[in-house]
Amino acid sequence: MRWQRGIHARGEFDAFAAANADSLVRTAFLMTGDRTEAEDLVQECFLRLARRWPRVRGMEHRGAYAQRVLFNLILDGRRTRARRNDELRTVPESAQVEQSHSSELEKRLDLIKALLALPDRQRAVLTLRYFGDLSESEIASILECAPGTIKSAAARGLARLSDVMGSATDHSGRTEDTTQGAQR
Amino acid sequence: MNSQIEENLRSALSSRASELGRAPGARVLARDYKPRSGVPRAAFIGGGAAIAAGIAAGLVISLSASTPRAFAGWSSSPTSAAAGQVQSADQTCRARLPVSASPESGEQAATKDWQAVLTDVRGPYIISIYSASEGKAVFSCFAGRDLGVATLGGVFIPGSATSVASGQVAIVSYGGNATPPDEGSARFSRLIGRAGPGVTMVSAKLADGTQVSATLSHGWFLAWWPGTARPVSTEVTTLRGARTQTIGNQLG
Q1: Are residues B240 and A180, on separate chains, in Cβ contact within 8 Å?
Q2: What is the number of CB-based contacts under 8 A between chain A and chain B?
Q3: Which residues in chain A touch residue B198, judged by CB atoms under 8 angstroms apart?
Q4: What is the distance between the terminal CA atoms of chain B, rounded to a whole angstrom?
Q5: Which residue of chain A is at minimal alpha-carbon distance from B238?
Q6: Nearest to residue B184, comparing CAs of B50, B37, B69?
Q7: Where are the alpha helices (H) located in chain B, listed in sequence order?
Q8: Among A57, A134, B33, B228, whose CB has the most other CB atoms within 10 angstroms?
Q9: Contact A151/A183 with Cβ under 8 angstroms?
Q10: What burial class does residue B38 get, using C-beta atoms within 10 Å of its C-beta: 0-12 exposed, 13-18 middle, 19+ buried?
């Protein structure tokens, strides 16, 4: 790739990549449940951004644009096929070790599993909303859809998680009070 | 109902993301990969590698010369727990938590009333934060290789628990403590604070240049390190970017 403005443009991109790599990898990790997959996605995201850099560098919200490119990669499904079989067994190492001992860790693990089992778009909305604390309009911009769509996807996703977690609680025999107390 | 699942989801996502450590993008920036789409890899790898090297250098624990032997195995980023490590430390710590959660009101707090809101693991060392009286009483508990021995450090926060704005952090406590005698009674420092919604990572920069990644859980963060170096700033990361916050007078 030829940098139109030479070393200066390249330096700008380097700085942009360094500033955004961490948050992009974390987001991709939460979406895929797999660190290596997340790194691959971010890598490809950076390649696309580099190719478009002459246009991207002038954008006011370049970070948000990077998130959009990343979520396009995740949601287009090309990279998620292999993940599907693995996602439910990919759990935090510490949780794997401790889950039989700690109801809190166990519940957190159940919630992450339930999140990973949601449809991609619902998972994307909930991740951006509750990990990134982004507004509906910010999420709509990243996912390129209407704010109303975000609202309904969030509601459906939360309802599904509530159902799953409610079932898990009932199944384990824990009472509602005990569950809430462990999460305070 | 939704508010409970929302709160649980925030906590679970934050905790899950913190497993990646302080600079999860460093490997991407440093990786020597072959592009699959024919896009020249020179895009950012050249300078990116240099930047990544700088990031990686920041990750390298620079305490090797000054870290007491008692802290062998300590890491500047949280690590995963070994089997039974958290449970054993929790049992030991709970046995030492006070029954009075508030010296002002004399309010009693049975062991079960102390909620473990955060557990930070760095190699063989665990520090857990316990909270009672709606966040007004906070105790940290350190356990080392002998999980049957622990030291406590407490703080009582007058008034209501602080509500922290989105993307912000507030320091609750900074102080020093010593490890149990079997760990050499070595001094260590810890920084405890609250993190608002959207905070995805917190790290503390010390006066000696060391960067210590915090554990983030349930809206609390904790970073600790061997010795007595003072923290000079925090780096707070959200999806909107990273921001450095000078600590200044907050430590008292």
Answers
A1: no
A2: 199
A3: 131-134
A4: 40
A5: A132
A6: B69
A7: 2-18, 26-30, 45-59, 85-94
A8: A134
A9: no
A10: exposed
| DSSP 8-state class, residue B25 | T
pTM over 0.80: no
Contact A154/B at CB under 8 A:
no
> Which H, E and C letters describe B115-176, residue by residue?
EEEEEEEECCEEEEEEEECCCCEEEEEEECCCCCCEEEEEEECCCCCCCCCCCCEEEEEEEE
B148 and chain A: CB distance < 8 Å anywhere? Answer: no
Give me the amino acid identity at A77: G
Please indicate if any CB of chain B lies within 8 Å of the CB of A10.
yes
Q: Please judge whether A47 and B41 are an interchain contact, meaning their C-beta atoms are less than 8 angstroms apart.
A: yes
Amino acid letter, residue B5: I
CA–CA distance, A134 with A110 (Å, rounded to integer) = 24
Q: How far apart are CA B143 and CA B115, in angstroms?
A: 17
For chain B, 252 residues long, give each residue's pLDDT as a single digit of tens.
568 899 889 988 988 888 787 678 888 888 644 444 444 443 444 444 333 333 333 333 333 334 445 688 898 888 878 888 888 888 888 888 876 555 455 455 555 678 888 889 898 899 999 888 776 778 888 888 887 777 777 666 654 456 788 889 988 888 887 877 777 778 889 999 989 988 888 999 999 999 998 988 888 899 999 998 999 999 998 888 788 888 876 665
Give the residue ranges of DSSP H helices in B68-107. Answer: 85-94
